[in-house]
Specification:
By secondary structure, the chain is mostly beta strands. The chain has helices at residues 2-18, 389-404; strands at residues 24-30, 37-45, 57-61, 64-65, 68-71, 81-88, 93-100, 111-119, 122-124, 127-129, 132-136, 138-140, 158-161, 164-168, 176-181, 210-212, 226-229, 232-235, 241-249, 253-264, 269-279, 285-291, 298-303, 308-312, 321-328, 339-346, 350-355, 359-364, 370-379, 408-411. It is built from 2 helices and 30 strands. Strand 17 and strand 18 form a beta hairpin. The chain starts with a helix and ends with a strand.
């Protein structure tokens, strides 16, 4: 009888030892390029990490913990993905261990997203007067919302990495603007509709942290989305309602989900679901859109400022990434201040390149109801910034290599 119980216990221990529900998980990451890749974001679905408590996850290489974050990847309000950053030398292979740890480490916040509403105001002639701004996770644009009515602290949501910041006008313009940063710290919580000594919004004046460095006007700004109709850009201006949600707020991934209900773009009405993401150490914003419509000509682009040089990659391969870019004196930070702006798009979605009097334009088609692209702003005055067009060209080509040759990830 004792022997039978002993055999049963040994068999049970064997089953537990062979169970996939283990307390550690190993993967291998490989850089296929002959260039170093820094701050590469690795994503692993939590449902693959069975047996590991998500709230106690740690990511390690050679015993050293790497910056990591649990994120909501599909904007449903639930954490479903583990992300972490890894640096890889040219051709390097690293084995990464994911395991539970007793103490959850808090990492330096290098990515941030927010939207702040006016509270305690008086509505006077359509302007939200007085009161204060409060950061919120979700906002619905109020009825009759227009530009410059001071309802939002930065005129809409804003996001940043330790390299650069951006904001989106959550009104009829629906355009994207650039905050140039002179520091690596998170600055956007303290940026917004405050006045300088001349009565202007303070972010239009150079501060220790930087300033709004980009003139958007009626152009496509940087990466603004729209429809291409009868040879003209139709922005996301006319909607039944708009909801903006901060889905992730650092430390290494910041993202925003914006739902536009009933977008009337001249070829009918359709809901539009968009996602914005930035990661630590990167200037890139990943912008993706989901739309169900028979119409298939949409667009994005960059403001076509004078005194700039136009740059264009020339890879015609299917499913490869390319770019359009401008370098030159297109910054508001001084007559001789230079700035680079770029859009990275995939050939499988490209219809053609064109321009109007305001913007360089890429016309794109949805693939399986989705359009996505990246944009980046590179400012001379950012810490260790890009100083000239030669350095800007190298940056563009390096990003192109990384997009077309992503890091290989395999489970061990």
């Amino acid at each position: 009888m004792k022997k039978q119980w002993f055999v049963k216990i040994i068999f049970l221990l064997f089953l537990l030892g062979c169970s996939p529900n283990v307390e550690s998980f190993k993967i291998q990451v490989k850089n296929p390029l002959n260039n170093n890749v820094l701050n590469n974001l690795v994503k692993i679905k939590l449902n693959k990490l069975k047996g590991i408590n998500p709230q106690k996850l740690g990511v390690f290489f050679d015993g050293k913990e790497l910056p990591s974050q649990l994120i909501d990847s599909d904007s449903d309000g639930k954490l479903d993905m583990l992300t972490f950053l890894v640096d890889l030398k040219a051709g390097e292979i690293k084995t990464i261990k994911i395991k539970e740890q007793k103490i959850k480490r808090h990492f330096v916040k290098r990515a941030h997203a927010e939207v702040s509403e006016k509270r305690g105001y008086k509505l006077i002639d359509g302007v939200y007067t007085g009161g204060y701004f409060k950061s919120v996770k979700t906002t619905t644009t109020p009825p009759g919302h227009i530009d410059h009515n001071y309802y939002y602290k930065c005129e809409g949501p804003c996001w940043e990495s330790d390299r650069v910041g951006y904001r989106l006008y959550l009104d009829w313009r629906n355009s994207v603007d650039v905050f140039g940063k002179k520091v690596a710290d998170s600055v956007l919580p303290n940026v917004g509709h405050t006045k300088d000594s001349k009565g202007h919004d303070s972010y239009h004046t150079m501060s220790d942290w930087g300033m709004d460095i980009y003139k958007v006007g009626n152009s496509l700004g940087i990466g603004t989305f729209g429809a291409w109709i009868n040879g003209k850009v139709e922005k996301v201006s006319k909607t039944d309602s708009t909801i903006c949600i901060i889905t992730n707020d650092g430390p290494i991934v910041a993202s925003i989900n914006i739902k536009y209900f009933g977008w009337n773009f001249g070829k009918g009405k359709s809901d539009l679901n968009s996602n914005i993401q930035i990661i630590a150490g990167s200037r890139l914003t990943h912008y993706s859109f989901y739309i169900q419509t028979d119409y298939n000509q949409f667009c994005t682009g960059i403001a076509n400022h004078p005194n700039t040089t136009f740059l264009l990659s020339n890879d015609k391969s299917d499913n490869h990434w390319n770019y359009i870019a401008l370098w030159g004196k297109q910054s508001l930070a001084g007559a001789n201040d230079e700035l680079g702006t770029a859009i990275f798009y995939n050939n499988k979605q490209k219809i053609k390149l064109t321009e109007d009097e305001l913007s360089k334009i890429i016309i794109l088609k949805p693939v399986n109801g989705k359009i996505d692209y990246y944009f980046a702003a590179c400012w001379q005055q950012e810490p260790n910034g890009i100083k000239n067009i030669k350095e800007f060209k190298k940056y563009l080509e390096d990003i192109l290599d990384e997009l077309n040759n992503p890091v290989n990830i395999s489970q061990l």
